[in-house]
Structures are given as structure tokens and as C-alpha cells.
């Protein structure tokens, strides 16, 4: 009985500490909406990506359920569907077809977007998944003053 009491006490303590964590307050302050935020790719397929201005960005527009993005040198457009369970599906996709200096990464970026089934958000970070597999991580670009 004493062992059960100790286990329950530890679980309650952990729950209180997690619930009061300062990181929750920081997360709320830095939280960005999925829509109308420009997202910069920082990780693709588990590989860190150095952000480059004007490359590998995506944006979701709420009023038209429209998606726009830029790879290494090509522009992408699509419509999207999402819901309160964070499912995400890009449809009716189109893109320009220029040959890029880093075509292999451009191809991986486009393929990743075609595989997305859901998303999750953590502060200023957007994570795209195919099922439970993390495909890419994006960071909200700072708003210009």
C-alpha cells in the first residue's frame, strides 16, 4: 500500500510540474496560426536545412483554402483541406518546372508535400507528418516591423 501511495505521489508531482512549466507560457506567446503565416523549412526527412531567404517556404491562406510555396527555384500552388483533428491534405497541386541547381532537394521537398496527411504545431514550429512519420519541420518566419 505504501508503494502505491509513493507512485501516485510522484505522478501527481510530475503532473503539477509539467502543468506549471514556464515553457507553456512561452509556447502560448510564440504560437503562430497555421494560416496566413509564412513557414520556412528547417528540417526535411530528419536532415537539418539551413534557412535561405526566398527558398523552401510554404503558406496556407484561410479565406480561399489555398496553399502556396517555393522550393529551390519553383513555385507551388494547391488547395488544401484540414480539420480540428489536424489532418491536412494538399489537392490540385501545380508547380513551375524550372531545373534547379539543387534539383535533388527540390524533388524531396515536393515529394514530402505530396505525402502529408497531418500536422502538429509547437509554438512557432509547424511539423508535417505522413501518419506517425515526421516528414518536415518549418519555423514561422518573423514578421517584418
Note down, in words, how this protein is organized.
Strands 1, 2, 3, 4, 5, 6, 7, 8 and 9 form a 9-stranded antiparallel β-sheet that branches. The protein is α+β, with helices and mostly antiparallel strands. The chain has 2 domains: 1-30; 32-140, Lipocalin (Beta Barrel). 28% of the residues lie in helices and 37% in strands. The longest helix is centred in the first third of the chain and has 18 residues, at 2-19. 14% of the residues are buried.
Number of helices: 3
**What would the principal axes of the Cα set say about the shape?**
globular
* Termini separation: 60 Å
Uncertain segments: 20-27
* Count of domain modules: 2
Spell out the key features of this protein.
145 residues, alpha+beta, Lipocalin, 2 domains, nine-stranded antiparallel β-sheet, 3 helices
Summarize this entry quickly.
This protein is of the alpha+beta class and 145 residues long.
Give the SSE map.
Elements: H1 2-19, H2 22-30, E1 38-44, E2 47-48, E3 57-61, E4 66-70, E5 75-82, E6 88-95, H3 103-115, E7 118-122, E8 125-130, E9 133-140
Antiparallel strand pairs: 1-2, 1-3, 1-9, 3-4, 4-5, 5-6, 7-8, 8-9
